Every structure is written in C-alpha cells, then in structure tokens.
C-alpha cells in the first residue's frame, strides 16, 4: 500500500521519468533531422543540377554549413544567375589531427616537446581553421596589403573608390607566392577551394607575377591559361570579385586534391627496390645557409647504400620531371627548405627525413617555418621524421650526424621492406 506522505514523491519521480523519455525521443528526432539535413546538403552540393527523371535541383546563391567534401567534388558550378551578382558559400571541413613526428632519439623528442609552440599544433585543429568562404564582392578592392589569410576580414575588400578597373577577378595575393613553395602552400589551397566557382563565373585569376617557371606549369595543369591570368601591379578593383581568402591554412582534403590535380600519384606504383631515394640540396636556393657541410660524406654513404636508386636533386625541375622523380620516390632527405616542398609530388608511401637546424637552446634557427614540412607530410599521409641538428655557422649550416642518418634509414628500410609492393 502506498504511503500518502510519499505520494508527492512518486508523482515527482513519474514526471521526471516522463520528461527523460520525452527528451530521449526528441533527441532521436533531432538526430534524424540532422542526418536528413546533412544528406540533403550533400545531395544539393554534389553538383549544380542532379537530374532524376524530369526533376533537377538548382543550387541557391547563398548557403552556409556546406560539407567541403561535397562542394569540392568537382561537379559543382555556380548557376548563371548567381555568377552575375552576389553569392556566398560557407564550407565546413572535417576535423583532423596532427600527431608527433617520428624521432631517432629520445633527446630529439624531448627537444620537440620542450618547445611550447609544437604542443599547440598537436591534436584536433580549432574550428576557426576548418571553415572556408567563397564570396562574390561587388566592386571589390584588390590590394597586396589586404590580408588574404584564413582569418581575413572580408569587409576590407569592399571598394570605396570610384574607378572600377576590372570586370571579374579572383585575387589570391598571398605574401611571397611568386615562389614555387609559397604558391603551393598559399595560393593552391585557396584556388582548389574556389576552382569550380572561378571557372564557372569565367573570372580572371589575379596573382603576383611568378618568379619560378613551375608556377605557370602548375596553373597550366589546372587548365588555367595565360589569358586567364592578371598579374598584380597596383591597387585596383573589380566589378565582381570572387574571394576565397578564407580557406583552411592546412587540411588533408585540400592537400590531397592539390596532389591529384597536379598529376602526382597517391600511392607508389613501383616496387620498393625500384623506387627513388632523393637527397635534396639547396644548390639553387634564393636564401643563404642551411647547407650540409659534410655533403660529400652524406652523398657517398647514400650511394653505397642505395646505388642507382639515389637521385641528387639540385633544383629547378619542371612539373613533369618533378612528378616523374618524386612520384616514384620512397625516401626524401634534406635540410629544412623549399626543396622539401617536392614532397607534394610524392606518394603517401614516402618517408620524409628533415634535418632541422637548431640553436643551442633547442629552438629552430632563425625565423623559419619549422612546422610546415611536418604538417604537409602528415596531410598527405606520408611518414615524417625530424632530426634536430645544431647549427655550425651563423647561416644555419649543419654537419649531418651520420649516426642519426644511418639509424633513421635502418628504421625506414625495415618498414618499407616489411611491406614491399
């Protein structure tokens, strides 16, 4: 028999159970709505029109929370009515992690972990670096001093002058992007994100005049001809500016699309014993320093170990040659610098060995982008090894530790040969 004094408690508990059941039901309904919305967005943005019988779906001119994988599928184009006026697309990229490099010694790992900035890179990337925006800005300003990075304030591109010089332009004025390496890591991700929009809108691409010939070869590979280019000269404006400055600074989806678009293979197509081992030099570098002071010793050691598989890279390969050489390479070895950007032509099977010049205080020498090679390699699914080496000159030149080199190659060869093609 129920105690009347406890009856109020019974009613209260019954109410709580009811609320919980209702919440669970609503949660399930909410989940289903999210799943349906995600499915709808993927269907909507996998192409401009998806014909099913007599039905077709037309993409609106403004949309947010678009899955980047759907938008970059290669089928999307802006409808004609959008390309003539304002449009806005906001993309959401999948989360991903950076993990620690591989090391040949506990001492090197301690050096890496002892520098706080490295710890900030590890783990899931922040949401603000997982969004992209492609926006048409009427009468948009074009100026090299307006930030075109991922945190860009698009309001700064609104033109306040009177003269409109260009019709349609997509400005990608990234600092130092006249060079091969910074065109690749600065311009190409933004171009890949907005490529189908730019092409469908028949817009010109506005860039700094390339310093390195391979930049034009990469654009040619992307079916962007000289007639599609405008070289930046001075502050100007465009009647319709297509802006893609807000692009994730690093993301595996973008980097793998870049590699594929440039014709480089995702996986090694030759047996390991026929693959290339590349020793990268700084023979034609525009920046002094970071040379191997015992280069001949390193070269002879590698010749004895790999014989005809060894290739000495001295710079200035064209795109076709780069894909041929690095696309069938299993190991790349070099001191930090632009030559290591050739890993972007190498397959995911490749091992990247970077010697990073450091001071006596265990920090990288000078103002070098110490994380970029590590990050690009992991974006492409490659295995990245970091070897710290104390500098021996003010310019950051180093004597390569032959003991460390032998150790890392022993470990790499063991991994590669345990799973040969």
Architecture overview:
The chain is built from twelve helices and 14 strands. By secondary structure, the chain is an alpha/beta fold. Among the domains are: 131-247, no CATH class; 265-417, Rossmann fold (3-Layer(aba) Sandwich). Strands 1-2-5-9-6-7-8 form a seven-stranded mixed sheet. α6 (180-200) packs across α8 (252-261). The radius of gyration is 26 Å and the shape is elongated.
Summarize the structure.
The protein is α/β, with parallel strands linked by helices and 421 residues long. The chain has helices at 4-45, 68-71, 80-83, 106-113, 116-121, 180-200, 213-221, 252-261, 295-306, 319-326, 372-379, 402-417; strands spanning 62-67, 88-92, 97-98, 123-124, 131-142, 166-171, 204-207, 229-231, 236-243, 276-280, 310-313, 329-335, 351-358, 383-390.
């Amino acid at each position: 028999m129920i105690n009347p004094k406890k009856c109020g408690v019974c009613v209260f508990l019954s109410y709580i159970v009811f609320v919980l059941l209702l919440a669970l039901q609503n949660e399930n309904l909410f989940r289903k709505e999210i799943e349906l919305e995600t499915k709808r967005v993927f269907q909507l943005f996998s192409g401009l029109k998806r014909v099913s019988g007599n039905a077709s779906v037309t993409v609106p001119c403004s949309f947010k929370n678009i899955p980047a994988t759907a938008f970059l599928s290669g089928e999307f184009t802006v409808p004609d009515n959008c390309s003539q006026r304002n449009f806005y697309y906001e993309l959401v990229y999948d989360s991903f992690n950076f993990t620690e490099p591989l090391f040949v010694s506990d001492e090197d790992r301690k050096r890496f972990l002892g520098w706080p900035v490295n710890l900030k890179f590890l783990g899931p990337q922040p949401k603000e670096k997982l969004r992209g925006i492609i926006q048409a800005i009427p009468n948009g300003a074009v100026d090299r001093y307006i930030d075109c990075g991922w945190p860009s304030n698009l309001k700064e591109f609104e033109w306040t002058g009177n003269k409109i010089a260009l019709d349609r332009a997509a400005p990608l004025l990234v600092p130092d992007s006249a060079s091969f390496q910074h065109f690749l890591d600065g311009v190409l991700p933004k171009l890949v994100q907005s490529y189908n929009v730019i092409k469908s809108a028949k817009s010109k691409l506005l860039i700094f005049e390339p310093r390195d010939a391979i930049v034009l070869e990469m654009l040619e590979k992307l079916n962007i001809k000289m007639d599609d280019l405008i070289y930046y000269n001075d502050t100007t404006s465009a009647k319709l500016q297509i802006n893609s400055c807000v692009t994730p600074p690093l993301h595996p989806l973008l980097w793998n699309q870049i590699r594929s678009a440039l014709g480089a293979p995702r996986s090694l197509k030759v047996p390991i014993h026929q693959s290339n081992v590349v020793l990268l030099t700084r023979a034609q570098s525009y920046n002094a320093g970071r040379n191997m002071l015992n280069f001949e010793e390193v070269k002879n050691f590698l010749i004895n170990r790999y014989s005809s598989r060894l290739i000495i890279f001295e710079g200035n390969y064209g795109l076709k040659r780069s894909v041929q050489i690095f696309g069938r390479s299993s190991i790349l070895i070099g001191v930090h610098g632009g030559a290591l950007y050739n890993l972007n032509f190498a397959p995911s099977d490749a091992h990247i060995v970077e010697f990073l010049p450091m001071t006596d205080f265990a920090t990288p020498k000078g103002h070098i982008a110490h994380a970029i090679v590590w990050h690009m390699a992991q974006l492409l699914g490659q295995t990245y090894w970091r070897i710290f080496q104390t500098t021996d000159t003010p310019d950051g030149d180093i004597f390569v530790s032959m003991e460390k080199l032998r150790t890392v190659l022993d470990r790499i060869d063991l991994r590669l040969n345990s799973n040969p093609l």
